[in-house]
């Protein structure tokens, strides 16, 4: 049974493929729990950082998704190829730098508004 989007690929095969990727990502993302566990004492003394973890993880995930969508779209429509690869990567590097500055400033502003101590504010941003 085709699903209309993936042509003649059986639904079960699509589920298997997508589930494989998602389970793999879940396992890799579980590494963050090991990092948190190893830094538990530090986090206990700086609890405010924990309050910002979802902001940091969410922004990082969204930024990565945006970049991957640009790559996939470029490959799909044919605008990303061997000839355009270097300019594309250079643009993405500049984009990463610009977005990191903007998000860093936004995170700094958010931490300042919530009166987070300066050491934690710097760590967050």
Give a structural overview.
- The chain is mainly α and 125 residues long.
- It contains 7 helices and no strands.
- The chain has helices at 11-29, 31-38, 40-45, 47-51, 53-77, 85-113, 118-124.
- The relative contact order is 0.08.
Shape: flat
User: Percent range for helical residues?
Assistant: over 70%
Unreliable segments (pLDDT under 50, ≥5 consecutive)?
Answer: none
Mean pLDDT: 86
The tally of strands reads 0
Query: Oligomeric status of the shown chains?
Result: single chain
Specify the biggest β-sheet: none
Distance between the termini: 49 Å
The run of helices and strands is HHHHHHH
List strands and helices in order, with pairings.
Blueprint: H1 11-29, H2 31-38, H3 40-45, H4 47-51, H5 53-77, H6 85-113, H7 118-124
Helix pairs in contact: 6-7
Outline of this structure?
This protein has seven helices and no strands.
Output the keywords.
mainly alpha; flat; 125 residues
């Amino acid at each position: 049974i085709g699903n209309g989007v993936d042509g003649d690929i059986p639904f079960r095969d699509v589920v298997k493929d997508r589930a494989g990727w998602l389970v793999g990502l879940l396992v890799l993302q579980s590494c963050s729990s090991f990092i948190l566990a190893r830094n538990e004492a530090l986090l206990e003394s700086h609890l405010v950082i924990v309050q910002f973890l979802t902001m940091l993880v969410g922004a990082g995930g969204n930024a990565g998704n945006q970049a991957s969508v640009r790559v996939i779209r470029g490959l799909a429509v044919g605008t990303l190829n061997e000839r355009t690869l270097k300019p594309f990567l250079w643009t993405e590097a500049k984009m990463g730098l610009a977005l990191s500055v903007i998000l860093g400033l936004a995170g700094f502003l958010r931490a300042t508004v919530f009166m987070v101590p300066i050491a934690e504010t710097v760590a967050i941003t």
